[in-house]
């Protein structure tokens, strides 16, 4: 049972870290919105899905790669990857701002019950997924390979591939930039102020509407970047690809302590590793069950997440 | 002002009800039940569903959605706990029916208590540890539970995994009324009776101690606890009752559909049922009935725009929630919790 785990420990670990970093970026989308609104952004999975399509469009339509064409190398590779990343982030951020505007803004202004907002977000989420389903005819869309998956080195019997390395490094850099932005910039300070105490922040002259829009924007940027890395590693997408990813990333956010940016980082990484190890030990079909069982246990014994600070108890 | 009173259907109906005496109330109720019972015969006119069989649509989704939404309403509407894994109880009921129906010779009505009991046991087992956490966390734990049930069923051999279970027996006929796959009127009437029983039960409960306790818990749990209400006990009761109704709906569904598979019990069902409750009006029985009818029926009715019907559904949800955030038929104002900003934080 554990033989596979021990045999392939290091390659599993590397795969887990790469997956974990994708989770980190998507759960940033959940955690940021939860921080300021105290609400689950149900449409984040769809924001992710639109982000993956942004990457496909860049690779396939903008740079005219096909399934048979040669992967890019050298400087061109950098250009292609960077453009794809930017387009994914742009598409996802646009979707996120749209979601905020359509589903959240009016209800927030009226200060109505939270369930109404939740259902409205679910509605937007269904609509976004359906639009993409109609556009793609319910078919999976493959992305042409722009990045050759060269094996760089061998570490303790584990192959280290170029796409995993790029994913890990770039995702870490993006996470770091966003985290610094929230820690240091004026806007970041405003976001943190709102998440601590909305009324006090308003009294101090924080423009609440702008803060919330920017929060969705940043969450969208992170989620979109995750979409791009997802395409780089898995090379296909579908209209419902966001569902599993959203569920897992949300679990990661809760695991780390939702509303807490560091929590998203540790939660995402631990979930990525956990998922990969669990599928090695128990078989792939049980990995989601393991993840949920762990989540339930964490919530029971440490309801604020593994690394979370005490979050105020909120009610539905 | 006057016009608004008529436009407000809930108060209009309530006024008629309050003005009438006991005899008139019985007459109104009987006429209403009779008219609803005639619904399966109204399939030729404007109500017809273009592609699916009309009487089948009336049973599932419409009637079973109403039943499940009423059950979920006890949890979400009456006691204010957000449950996103309601489909789990539906699945437990359905699989109880499927396994017992195919492996033993017991019929649907004898399995029904087992389905309800298993769902209730699951409700207690899930409720005991999780009802201590509140709000969004509860939503996620229940969501996780719903997914766990589906994945366990999908990956186990006793449930035949993704192939599902076929050849589930139909219920035995009640007197002259025979259950038939191609003519599902009897199913509709049976479900309707279960809905009426559920409504009766909820109405009795909500004016008695449990109902008042739930109301207090929903408005302010800490205050309720301080007033001496054993909140955990009542929360588990509410959860378990909701589970029981979900289980009953599951038994009925499996026996009607003759075939079940794990893909019928996805998170989508939980979300749809929650949407029924919120769209209709959280906590108001009639609102929930209306909401569930719309959500069950609308996608089938607009099948002529077949491909885009879910898209339209999503847009409708957003629009309704933005313009009537308390639902189409909201509960009365005096029952509403204080939702002004800052109070509940």
Descriptive report:
The complex is a heterodimer of chains A (316) and B (345). Helix content of chain A is 74%, strand content 4%. Chain A is mainly alpha-helical. Chain A has a single domain, classed as ABC transporter involved in vitamin B12 uptake, BtuC. In chain A, the strands form two sheets. Chain A has a two-stranded antiparallel sheet with strand order 1-4. Chain A has a two-stranded antiparallel ribbon with strand order 2-3. In chain A, helix 3 packs antiparallel against helix 4, helix 3 packs across helix 10 and helix 4 packs antiparallel against helix 9. Chain A is globular. The C terminus of chain A is likely disordered. By secondary structure, chain B is an all-alpha fold. Chain B has a domain of 202 residues. Chain B has 14 helices and no strands. In chain B, helix 4 packs antiparallel against helix 13. The longest helix of chain B has 27 residues. Chain B is globular. Classes of the chains: A mainly alpha (316), B mainly alpha (345).
């Amino acid at each position: 049972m554990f033989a596979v785990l021990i045999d392939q420990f290091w390659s599993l670990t590397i795969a887990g870290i790469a997956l974990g970093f994708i989770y980190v970026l998507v759960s940033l989308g959940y955690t940021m919105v939860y921080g300021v609104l105290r609400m689950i952004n149900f449409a984040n999975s769809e924001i992710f899905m639109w982000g993956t399509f942004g990457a496909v469009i860049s690779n396939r339509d903008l740079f005219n790669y096909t399934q048979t064409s040669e992967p890019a190398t050298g400087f061109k590779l950098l250009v292609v990857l960077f453009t794809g990343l930017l387009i994914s982030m742009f598409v996802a951020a646009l979707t996120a701002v749209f979601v905020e505007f359509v589903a959240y803004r009016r209800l927030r202004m009226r200060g109505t019950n939270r369930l109404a907002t939740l259902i409205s977000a679910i509605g937007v989420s269904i609509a976004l997924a359906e639009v993409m389903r109609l556009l793609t005819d319910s078919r999976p869309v493959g992305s042409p390979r722009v990045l050759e998956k060269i094996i760089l080195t061998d570490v303790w019997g584990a192959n280290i591939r170029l796409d995993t390395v790029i994913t890990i490094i770039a995702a870490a850099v993006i996470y770091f930039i966003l985290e610094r932005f929230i820690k240091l910039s004026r806007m970041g300070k405003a976001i943190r102020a709102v998440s601590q105490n909305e009324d006090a922040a308003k009294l101090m002259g924080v423009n609440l509407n702008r803060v919330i829009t920017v929060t969705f924007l940043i969450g969208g940027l992170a989620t979109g970047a995750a979409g791009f890395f997802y395409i780089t590693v898995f090379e296909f997408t579908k209209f419902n690809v966001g569902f599993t990813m959203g569920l897992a990333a949300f679990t990661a956010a809760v695991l780390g302590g939702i509303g807490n940016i560091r929590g998203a980082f540790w939660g995402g990484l631990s979930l990525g590793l956990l998922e990969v190890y669990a599928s090695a030990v128990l078989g792939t079909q049980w990995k989601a069950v393991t993840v949920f069982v762990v989540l339930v246990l964490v919530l029971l014994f440490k309801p604020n997440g593994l690394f979370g600070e005490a979050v105020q108890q909120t009610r539905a | 002002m006057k016009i608004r009173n008529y436009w407000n259907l809930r108060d209009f109906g309530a006024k008629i009800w309050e003005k009438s005496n006991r005899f008139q109330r019985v007459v109104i109720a009987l006429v209403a039940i009779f008219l609803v019972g005639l619904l399966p015969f109204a399939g030729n006119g404007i109500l017809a569903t273009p592609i699916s069989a009309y009487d089948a649509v009336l049973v599932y989704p419409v009637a079973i959605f109403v039943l499940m939404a009423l059950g979920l309403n006890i949890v979400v509407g009456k006691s204010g706990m957000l449950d996103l894994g309601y489909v789990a109880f539906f699945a437990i009921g359905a699989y109880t029916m499927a396994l017992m129906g195919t492996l033993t010779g017991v019929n649907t009505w004898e399995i029904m208590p087992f389905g309800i009991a298993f769902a209730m046991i699951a409700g207690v087992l899930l409720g005991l540890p999780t009802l201590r956490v509140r709000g969004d966390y509860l939503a996620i734990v229940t969501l996780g539970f719903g997914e766990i049930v589906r994945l366990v069923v999908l990956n186990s051999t006793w449930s035949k995994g993704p192939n599902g279970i076929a050849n589930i027996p139909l219920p035995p006929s009640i007197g002259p009324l025979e259950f038939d796959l191609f003519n599902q009127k009897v199913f509709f009437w049976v479900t309707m009776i279960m809905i009426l029983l559920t409504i009766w039960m909820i109405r009795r409960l909500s004016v008695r101690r449990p109902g008042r306790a739930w109301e207090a818990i929903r408005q302010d749990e800490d205050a309720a606890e301080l007033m001496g209400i054993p909140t955990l006990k009542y929360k588990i009761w509410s959860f378990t009752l909701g589970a029981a109704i979900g289980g009953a709906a599951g038994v009925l569904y499996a026996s009607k559909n003759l075939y079940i598979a794990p893909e019928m019990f996805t998170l989508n069902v939980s979300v749809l049922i929650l949407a029924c409750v919120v769209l209709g009006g959280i906590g108001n029985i009639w609102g929930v009935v209306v909401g569930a009818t719309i959500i069950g029926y609308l996608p089938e009715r607009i099948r002529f725009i077949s491909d885009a019907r879910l898209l339209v559904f999503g847009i409708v949800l957003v629009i309704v929630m933005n313009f009537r955030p308390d639902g189409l038929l909201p509960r009365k104002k005096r029952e509403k919790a204080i939702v002004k900003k800052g109070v509940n934080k």
